[in-house]
Amino acid sequence: MSHTSLSPAIDHPAPTTQAAPPVELTLEERLALVNAAMTARLDEAAVAYEVNTAHIATEPVDLADVVTGPVDTGPAPLPELYPTPVAAVLQRAHHRLLTGGWCKDVLVDEDGARCMLGAIRIEARGDSGLEASAAAVLLDAIRRKFGDVDSVPGFNDAWGNGRVPMRMLDQAAGLADARGL
Questions:
Q1: Sequence spans of domains, the chain
Q2: What are 75-114's pLDDT values in tens digits?
Q3: Which of 10, 37, 38, 130 has minimal CB crowding within 10 Å?
Q4: CA dist., res. 78 & res. 94, Å (int)
Q5: What is the CA radius of gyration of the chain?
Q6: pLDDT tens, residue by residue, 14-43
Q7: Paired residues of 108 in beta bridges
Q8: C-alpha span between 170 and 87 (Å, rounded)
Q9: Which residues contact 181 (CB under 8 A, 6 or more apart)?
Q10: 88: number of CA atoms within 13 Å, CB side?
């Protein structure tokens, strides 16, 4: 007996489709999948917590006893003034912007908020020499930090909010005090 071909007892058909290659997910897609998985796990944990603690008797809590708001204390008190006149003007100007508001493009806006120079002007109380000295120290402090700046009003108006201008007034007050001005 001659066997010319050996064939298996059962013929398996050849696969007609190939397995799809693995899909590469973007970071956003992977984060969305992780978020969905974590949400499901947290939901399960919440249900388990409710089931495990349902037998524990609790008393209702009055939120008025727990949630309290800040006491209205009014505007912040003016800190101890620097002993030197220019430093004191700069410190008062800084405090005025903190309590009265900051603005740009005008010395004083319709709400009473002031720019850096407007705050110095009102705190110099009519003393033009004191106002000029305070503005000069402020410009020097600004230039030390930001390089070549043309003017105090130009610096003030370049900002969208008053955080940096107020910080510079505070730093200028320290600089004036260190110089004995």
A1: 85-179
A2: 667 667 888 999 999 999 999 999 899 999 999 999 999 9
A3: 10
A4: 10
A5: 36
A6: 666 677 778 888 999 999 999 999 999 999
A7: 114
A8: 9
A9: 84, 85, 86, 87, 133, 137
A10: 9
